[in-house]
Amino acid sequence: MRRYLVSGFLALLLAGVGLPAALPVGAQEAITVELAPVGGSGISGQATVQPMDGQTMVVITLQGLEPNSRHAAHVHGGSCGGSVMYPLTVVVADAEGNGTSTSMVAATPDASWWIQVHRAESPPGPGIACGQVPS
Ligand SMILES: [Cu+2]
Asked: Does residue 21 form part of some domain?
């Protein structure tokens, strides 16, 4: 029985399951956060939240943005409308409107984290996509 569990786990690791091929030392399992449209924006995507050594790497990917646009992103506390807990790297869209951002946050994630991307860079304006880190 145990052997099956172990080999199943290895198969998941080998299959990638959205993880880097080799996790950095101290890395824990990555958490996927669905970023849903806010206010009928039509913008959605995902954030990958990867705790490692007391810090957290947050990688945001969004589709449907204006080409070559820039968007402030934050970890908000308690809800999309909560106060900013941690600023994140600005999301930059390419010519096809696909946006990415990679940040390191000096804290570990929990369900009080809501990841939100805003309409503009500065001032950020309203949220366009937001999602809660699952507990
Ligand atoms: Cu924000």
From this structure: no
Q: What is the pTM of this model?
A: 0.81
Range of the domain at 122: 27-132
CA of 96 to the centre of ligand 1 (A): 24
Specify the CATH number for the domain of residue 31: 2.60.40.200
CB count within 10 Å of CB 68 equals 12
Please give the Cα distance from 15 to 127 (Å, whole number): 34
Say if residue 14 is exposed, middle or buried (CB neighbours under 10 Å; 0-12, 13-18, 19+): exposed
Reported confidence tier of residue 1, pLDDT bands at 50, 70, 90: very low
For ligand 1, the distance from its centroid to the CA atom of residue 74, given in whole angstroms, is 4
Q: What are the φ/ψ torsions at residue 99 (nearest 5 degrees)?
A: -110, 145
pLDDT at 5 over 90: no
